[in-house]
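Chapter review: from sequence to fold.
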Amino acid sequence: MTVKPQWLRVKAPQWERVGNVKEILRDLSLNTVCEEASCPNIGECFSAGTATFLIMGPACTRACPYCDIDFEKKPQALDPTEPQRLAQAVQRLKLNHVVITSVNRDDLPDGGASQFVECIRSVRSTMPDTTIEVLIPDLCGNWQALEIILAAKPDVLNHNTETVKRLYRKVRPQGKYDRTLELLQRSRELAPGVYTKSGIMVGLGETDAEIREAMQDLRAVGCDILTVGQYLQPTQKHLNVESFVPPEQFDAWREFGESLGFLQVVASPLTRSSYHAEQVRDLMKLYPR
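The token string follows.
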């Protein structure tokens, strides 16, 4: 694995706070994408008392070569108590904003849409002032399932683009670039009051022109919020890092995205799709729907 440059080093976390979050998660038998996907910001986020909950997992039905989430285990039946346990965690952690994501569950007729809905409802009833962001898979293009999720009225609908169109078959072999764009466009049309969001990884062999084209494509379908971050190779068996992009290039992409009309562009080497996601609360005050 390539040696990481200086700008990708992270501060040591406050382990007392990290341990408290982990204790709550273990007590309630919950998974987080922070742990399952080996996120580099886990220390910072856990120290701040935030977490991105991973439902219907931890086993995934897809084997994306960039992702560290387990795909070798057999997916389990949905747990009807999971939504209530998740809501309890949000309450115990006193979260103002919660991100709920999932593994891909292509084995389920609705891709897990019903479980997302139950989680949204449970959090709403337990913590009515907490804003809710759902980071969903592409649902295999099941737009009825998407409509079911949106009808539950999350505050933010997030679906990651991950990479540029040319690299989709390599990076996301079971996904489709055009399907991702269609999901975001349909979300805007079905629920104009819900903020839409997407994320892109860089360092996989894409060009600057291709990143800008992807950003333009996302704005063309009404995407509100964009995150851009450096891909990091989880293990030797995952895709190699083709390049480490310097911080100033992320600044240039942020400025370009703002010029396109994104309400917010979060771009830096360590940015991930849920990094500082709570900032959307301020965004909602500036740009109410």
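Two observations follow directly from the output. The beta strands are 31-32, 52-55, 97-102, 131-135, 156-158, 195-202, 225-230, 264-267. The CA atoms of residues 97 and 131 lie 5 Å apart.
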